[in-house]
Amino acid sequence: MASDAGSLLTSNVVSPSAAERDLPILTHGYSFTNPSPLTPPSIFTTREPAKPLVRTISESSTPETEPNLRPILPAYIEGTVPTIATLPSAPTPRVPNILLVDDNRINLQLLVTFMKKSKFNYSAASDGLEALNTYKAAADSLLATTSTPTSPSSSSPPSRPAFDYILMDISMPIMDGNESTRHIRAYEKEKKLPASKIFALTGLASATAQEESYASGIDHFLPKPVNFRELKVLLEKIDDIVGVGG
Length: 246
Hints:
With 246 residues, the chain is α/β, with parallel strands linked by helices. It has helices spanning 2-11, 18-21, 105-118, 128-146, 177-191, 207-216, 228-235, and strands spanning 25-27, 30-33, 46-49, 97-101, 121-125, 165-169, 197-202, 220-223. The chain has a five-stranded parallel β-sheet with strand order 5-4-6-7-8, sandwiched between helices. Residues 5-14, 25-33, 41-47 and 241-246 have low confidence and may be disordered.
């Protein structure tokens, strides 16, 4: 019975052609290499470890000296394997610099708390005159960092404003918000500075009051009490700040 099974197995083995003997066979991580034509059909294949897909070939390696040297994929010469280029990192978003102006201590403290929570840079003033002086100090400092020591008059104007945003209360003692804004706009024009975005913080809703503020250089009205969610959306549009004051 055993001899019948043996004859059945050997009788079903088909001898490979010459072309088939030259082809490597890859199955489940192993390479089966056909032997010479003299190998009996019953021991037709030999089992070897699979050839690596990426290999180093020496100059002396030839099909005659290494008949089984037939990589499944084209081999790379050592040192020539392509590498993935390092992508540049995304630029860090610029944090806005904001001037807060309000004569009401509670309102000013709420604005300061909001700035700290949002991680924005800020300065604070309690009236229009203090706001103007704070603005001029920041502008002069900015101009000093961008000027050329040997020829200050030939220096290029700054690419950013002294303050990205100014949150300006309108009704204040000493100097109100409209007058302070007019002086700030004049200083921007004199020094050729990029214009700050000035938002009016006010409870005044009359058309006449808004018209005067717009004529003074106010860009946008924010009614009191301030909606801090809307304010944050506006302040995060820092890329929209363009142009030169005037």
